[in-house]
Amino acid sequence: DAGVIQSPRHEVTEMGQEVTLRCKPISGHNSLFWYRQTMMRGLELLIYFNNNVPIDDSGMPEDRFSAKMPNASFSTLKIQPSEPRDSAVYFCASSLQTGQAVTQYFGPGTRLLVL
Amino acid sequence: QKEVEQNSGPLSVPEGAIASLNCTYSDRVSQSFFWYRQYSGKSPELIMSIYSNGDKEDGRFTAQLNKASQYVSLLIRDSQPSDSATYLCAVLGGDYKLSFGAGTTVTVRA
After folding, report:
1. What is the DSSP code (8-state) at residue A11?
2. pLDDT, tens digit, for every residue of A21-63?
């Protein structure tokens, strides 16, 4: 079975440009998570969805960041306008929430570099 | 914000030795605990989950949980060079959000 799919795998852009990251969760999973990982701050949760509904976006750094999940098989994370400090690896993860057994499976990540 | 603290490392062990990784957490209501392994340039992958006090063994890995002390650990027995990676402790809160520690980098010397 395919795991979590993310695209693009690498993105290099200039400051001020719009960046859109994409994620396809594992089929059948009902929760989707967007994380950001940097050396300084480690792995941070940005936002998570349950049954396509945003549940908690308290980790979204500022209004420049937005996320959508129009259906169970697709989500986007958009940064507009991008800034150099947004450079990081962005991971998407999905899980099937059934009580305590909520193992999250991570995608390969998108390495973003904002110049 | 829930706090998850790991021994900072890096941890260097000879091949065949036991690597011991420690993690403490601050949220007393947490019930689910996970260890993820992350190779350099790769995504985190789950290697162990533990929900009850005591030990849980899976191959060369043993996770230990003590909820009273808010402590979870991971032992890697007979360490192999392929175990060289960063190990992330993760704690699930009542809101289904995972909080991750900063990670401990393990290097196994051949």
Report:
1. E
2. 999 999 999 999 999 999 988 999 999 999 999 999 999 988 9
Give the alpha-carbon dihedral of B7, B13, B18, B19, to 10 degrees.
Answer: 20
Tell the residue number behind the tokens 């994409």, with chain if given: A22
Q: Residue A33 half-sphere exposure, CB side, CA atoms within 13 Å?
A: 24
Closest CB to B98 among A55, A100, A104: A104
Given a contact cutoff of 8 angstroms between Cβ atoms, the answer to whether A19 and A12 are in contact is no
Residue with tokens 């909080």: B99
Q: Which two tokens stand for residue A66?
A: 């937005």
* A–B CB contacts, 8 A cutoff, strictly below: 43
Task: Write the CA distances from B40 to A19, A107, B26, B86, integer angstroms.
Answer: 25, 15, 28, 8
